[in-house]
Design a protein that fits this description.
It is a single chain. By secondary structure, this protein is α/β, with parallel strands linked by helices. The chain is 41% helix and 30% strand. The protein is built from 4 helices and 5 strands. It is globular, with a radius of gyration of 13 Å.
Length: 120
């Protein structure tokens, strides 16, 4: 079973999301609800910046993966920086971006680079 956490970094106005283990549909639904609640507290809720940390993200169910990927490209999402060296995440995101290219989603190996890009 996996774990998630979502919180608003008020100083940077970034939603921080952490993933750990295998996610199922119920966890992804809770994760999306917590992310929406955090976005509502942003100074500019129409310009959502997300830092997703997924070093220990597991495979998860196919529907959970689809739910996560569909929400990456939401209109109000300005930028998504994915942090981690998780091979599953790299393959899933690369596949998603091959099908639906987006310049608002990038993967990073360290937090400093990810934050710098999010703040541009």
């Amino acid at each position: 079973m996996g774990k998630i956490s979502v919180y608003l970094d008020e100083e940077h106005q970034i939603i921080r999301q952490n993933f750990d283990g295998n996610l199922d549909e119920d966890m992804v639904q809770r994760f999306l609800e917590e992310s929406r609640a955090a976005a509502a507290r942003l100074k500019d809720p129409k310009k959502i910046r997300i830092l997703g940390v997924a070093d220990s993200l597991g495979k998860g169910s196919p529907e959970a993966r689809r739910q996560l990927l569909r929400n990456l490209d939401h209109d109000d999402v300005y930028k998504v920086a994915l942090l981690g060296k998780n091979p599953f995440m790299n393959v899933a995101i690369s596949f998603f971006l091959a099908i639906k290219p987006s310049n608002k989603i990038r993967m990073f190996g360290n937090e400093d680079d990810a934050l710098r890009w999010l703040m541009e």
